[in-house]
């Protein structure tokens, strides 16, 4: 088959630009998320117990959400980018329309199931009766997220990552503002009821998802002329039956959704086992608070680096799918290797930094509820493996190796379940066992996934570039920043010493990366403003 070439749209984003756009968006999203987590944790009447109620309800919602929507953006992005790559915009838009109708139905079923099943889930599954209202408040969000996910996938496939970034950022802005507003109103009306405040926080999530979808819909309306023009200029279009397209969408989305479901199950293992096991040797309210530390504060902090790195996984799916459609193996290798290198450079210092400064970070962010140092230290060890696995999964999904991420994470979840059941009931280990189990889960998943991607893409990852130099840079960062912290801690306030030590860690780490020449000239030039950066480095006689 001869593929006709269509003039490239100059408005499409390059891979580097897409990644940077998503990174900045995710950083802002996580900062906003941290703000309302700080607010809730430090709010009188909420604290670790409120986080326990909130997290348990949210994890059930997240599990149902994966069934209705998590696999959708990547699946639609992959299928649309394959069509767009060969100039078939009409086929790409047809996939979008059919997917929208399909997942609207699936999302609606998910919302109804959660609404009417909230009581059974809270009382029988979680054994946290207070979580019932949080589940009811979240139930409508499943429908809105499902249809919004289809729209995000369509725009991602058209190489318009800014649309996804803006919608997610706006959604988080609304979520943060509404959480604070609604919780304060409920606190006054309910005489500071922890249960009702947790439900109010999740109601804010539902309203925010509706507003996020509204932005996407309005944006789509403004782009109708441009999309229609692309459809008229479409080439290589071949009509497919609706049944065939739905089957293709499900064949792609189900394996991706299974991976997301397993990730959600991984979190729900803690929901189902931690409080239940801890109650055997401690009071129920203390057990709920212990779970609140793990599911509230610690998960929030360890997820921050993942949010930055998710840009690579998101951008890799359409980029590699398009490259494969054009049979461009060189591009596949280059983008995968570069993404893995950056993921390593993100994950390693975050792991080390969070381990070293676990106590000071908790004191800085949660002055009214700062317990959990050991749990955070243990959990931080999983960050590196989770980040690398995140990037690998994006590459494999874009390439069409859809079941490998599912298999690798499935093996990890099994390890997590076994270790939770063995370690958490031991009084001397307790909730720390759940954190250790999470590390084991992601280590196993990473080993399986990295072995597969190296074989599938025939990658040649040099040990010095991808492992040794990042370790050296991270070691320099860790030693320098900790010494600065120890020096300042006896002179100035502890919180200020923590902030200055962390700022110095970032500066030292960036200087170490440059000094060690971890990035090649080609990799620097591929970055936004890469030419200007390289000229500066040349003048400094580093390159």
Task: Please tell me about this protein's structure.
This protein folds into 3 domains: about 180 residues, no CATH class; about 210 residues, no CATH class; about 80 residues, no CATH class. About 80% of the residues lie in helices and about 0% in strands. The protein is built from 20 helices and no strands. The longest helix is centred in the middle third of the chain and has 42 residues. The radius of gyration is 23 Å and the shape is globular. The N terminus is likely disordered.
Summary tags:
0% strand; mainly alpha; disordered N terminus; 543 residues
Secondary structure layout plus pairing:
Elements: H1 15-42, H2 47-85, H3 89-126, H4 132-138, H5 141-157, H6 161-189, H7 194-222, H8 224-232, H9 242-278, H10 284-325, H11 329-356, H12 358-365, H13 373-380, H14 383-399, H15 403-423, H16 432-457, H17 463-489, H18 494-515, H19 521-525, H20 530-539
Helix pairs in contact: 1-6, 1-10, 2-3, 2-4, 2-5, 2-7, 2-9, 2-10, 3-4, 3-5, 3-8, 3-9, 4-7, 5-7, 6-7, 9-10, 9-15, 10-11, 10-13, 10-14, 11-13, 11-14, 11-17, 12-18, 13-16, 14-16, 15-16, 17-18
Quick overview of this protein structure:
This protein has 543 residues and is mainly alpha-helical. Helices cover 82% and strands 0% of the residues. The chain has three domains: 175 residues, no CATH class; 206 residues, no CATH class; 82 residues, no CATH class.
Order of helices and strands: HHHHHHHHHHHHHHHHHHHH
Shape: globular
In helices, the fraction of residues equals over 70%
Beta content comes to under 5%
Structural class: mainly alpha
Largest sheet: none
Radius of gyration: 23 Å
Tally of individual domains: 3
Mean pLDDT: 85
**Number of helices, where a helix is a run of at least 4 consecutive DSSP H or I residues:** 20
Poorly predicted sequence stretches spanning 5 or more consecutive residues? 1-12
**What is the number of strand segments?**
0
Distance between the termini: 45 Å
């Amino acid at each position: 088959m001869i593929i006709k070439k269509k003039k490239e749209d100059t408005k499409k984003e390059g891979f580097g630009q897409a990644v940077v756009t998503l990174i900045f968006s995710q950083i802002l999203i996580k900062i906003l998320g941290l703000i309302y987590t700080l607010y809730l944790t430090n709010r009188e009447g909420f604290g670790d117990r409120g986080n326990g109620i909130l997290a348990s309800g949210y994890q059930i919602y997240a599990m149902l959400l994966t069934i209705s929507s998590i696999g959708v953006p990547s699946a639609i992005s992959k299928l649309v980018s394959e069509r767009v790559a060969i100039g078939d915009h009409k086929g790409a838009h047809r996939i979008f329309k059919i997917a929208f109708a399909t997942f609207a139905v699936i999302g609606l079923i998910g919302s109804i199931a959660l609404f009417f099943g909230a009581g059974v889930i809270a009382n029988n599954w979680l054994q946290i009766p207070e979580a019932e209202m949080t589940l009811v408040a979240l139930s409508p969000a499943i429908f809105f997220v499902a249809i919004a996910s289809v729209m995000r996938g369509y725009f991602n496939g058209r190489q318009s990552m800014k649309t996804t970034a803006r919608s997610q950022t706006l959604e988080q802005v609304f979520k943060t503002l509404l959480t604070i507003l609604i919780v304060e109103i409920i606190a006054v009306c309910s005489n500071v009821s922890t249960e009702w405040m947790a439900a109010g926080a999740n109601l804010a999530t539902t309203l925010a998802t509706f507003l996020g979808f509204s932005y996407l819909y309005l944006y789509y309306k403004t782009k109708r002329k441009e999309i229609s023009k692309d459809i008229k200029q479409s080439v290589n279009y071949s009509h497919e039956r609706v049944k065939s397209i739905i089957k293709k969408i499900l064949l792609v989305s189900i394996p991706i959704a299974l991976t997301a479901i397993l990730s959600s199950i991984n979190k729900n293992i803690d929901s189902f086992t931690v409080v239940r096991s801890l109650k055997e040797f401690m009071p129920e309210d203390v057990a709920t608070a212990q779970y609140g530390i793990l599911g509230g504060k610690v998960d929030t902090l360890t997820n921050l680096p993942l949010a930055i790195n998710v840009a690579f996984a998101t951008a890799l799916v359409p980029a590699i799918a398009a490259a494969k459609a054009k049979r461009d193996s060189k591009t596949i290798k280059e983008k995968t290797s570069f993404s893995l290198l950056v993921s390593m450079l993100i994950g390693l210092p975050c792991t080390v930094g969070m381990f070293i400064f676990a106590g000071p970070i908790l004191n800085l962010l949660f002055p009214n509820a700062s317990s959990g140092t050991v749990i955070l230290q243990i959990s931080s060890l999983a960050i590196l493996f989770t980040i690398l696995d995140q990037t690998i999964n994006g590459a494999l999904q874009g390439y069409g190796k859809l079941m490998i991420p599912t298999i690798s994470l499935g093996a990890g979840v099994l390890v997590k379940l076994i270790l939770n059941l063995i370690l958490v009931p031991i009084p001397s280990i307790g909730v720390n066992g759940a954190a250790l189990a999470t590390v084991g889960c992601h280590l196993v998943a990473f080993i399986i996934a990295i072995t597969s991607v190296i074989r599938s893409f025939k990658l040649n990852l040099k040990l010095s570039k991808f492992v040794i130099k990042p370790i050296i840079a991270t070691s320099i960062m860790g030693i320098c920043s900790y010494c600065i912290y120890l020096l300042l801690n006896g002179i100035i306030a502890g919180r200020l010493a923590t902030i200055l030590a962390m700022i110095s860690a970032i500066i030292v780490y960036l200087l170490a990366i440059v000094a060690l020449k971890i990035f090649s000239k080609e990799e620097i030039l591929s970055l936004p403003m890469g030419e200007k950066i390289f000229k500066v480095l040349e003048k400094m006689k580093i390159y």
